[in-house]
Amino acid sequence: MFQRKFIPILRSSNSLPKIPLSRRIMNDKFTVLSYNMLSPSYMWPQVYTYVPDQYKDWNYRHTLLELELLDKYKADIMCVQEMTKRDYIDYWQLKLGTTIGYGSKFIAKSPPKYWERHLLDLDGVAIFYNLQKFDFISSSGIYLNEFLDVFNPEELQYLKEKTLELTDGAGIKIDEKTLFEILSVKNQVSLFVCLKHKETGQVFIIINTHLYWKYDEVKLSQCIIIMRELSKIIDELLQDVRHSKVKIIFAGDLNSTKDSLVVKFLEGQILSHGALNMVNPMRPYFNSSIYNKVPEDFFTNTCYSGKLKGIFDYLWYNDKDLSLTKILRGKEVSDELEALMEFGLPNKDHPSDHIPILTEFQILH
């Protein structure tokens, strides 16, 4: 197994942020992880034909996940996707809460029409946070299909008129529906947790989400919903006299490549798409993803699922608020798979078809 390296981000002295000496002695660094752990409900036999049965086994994969999250990485803030409600209640909430002193919040998706398993087996997103470094302030979770009222009348009309071809796994057209109809039934969620960094007193809102895996316009619309709702949450928070400013970390599996509509929207690259207002209201709060700060060859993919490979997992932040000081490089996993002549993940050493994104940040002011 190739060893992934948690390496410093090197900068020239001219690009280093100016941090007062009094602040340098403070414990103003913390680690953040984002990880799609691959729910056992989604270990589709038709997709993971390349994975030996013993490595598909949930008990085997769970043991590796425990090793990664509890021992190997143990980030101060962990944003996890595809965690089942059962697993959160029965294991992670208790284990992280009682053993290593972490608080946590979780939201499960609503059941889709095809769902035949127990409701506890539905997956969702969770945020875990180190209570030695952070105080909990508040949290909220939203079902994205219940927040279509964030769109104005002109945008809603566009959503109701724009049709998309629905395709099966082979890319063959099976139906056609409007964008509004699709958004109304998709069950993706987003979780917002507000924390106060004990040492510096800085207030953070951590967002974790997992966008739908197909159709760029669906993912774009879901991301717009999250950003507009986040804007409301911040406005309400800033009305509290105790909080004059907040910092944002936006994490998750966006199922979107770096040249996608979603990323362009988050970066503020384009201003309109059809009738959708593409101005990201949260752009002043984050201006960079981790991929803007590391060499291109640090990551080949973050997802290795059968034919679906790419950089889909993100951490966004404002580089005036936080300095990216270390990152867990991902190319070693690609090199490892090539050396083993394996098709994808999971495998003997990696429990998910995604790799964890792990970073260290320093608070600048």
TrEMBL record:
Q: Where is the Endonuclease/exonuclease/phosphatase domain?
A: 34-354
Which GO terms of the molecular function aspect are on file?
3'-5'-RNA exonuclease activity
Q: Which InterPro entries match?
A: CCR4/nocturin_mRNA_transcr, Endo/exonu/phosph_ase_sf, Endo/exonuclease/phosphatase
Name this polypeptide is given: Endonuclease/exonuclease/phosphatase domain-containing protein
Q: Organism, per UniProt?
A: Naumovozyma dairenensis (strain ATCC 10597 / BCRC 20456 / CBS 421 / NBRC 0211 / NRRL Y-12639)
The gene is NDAI0A08530
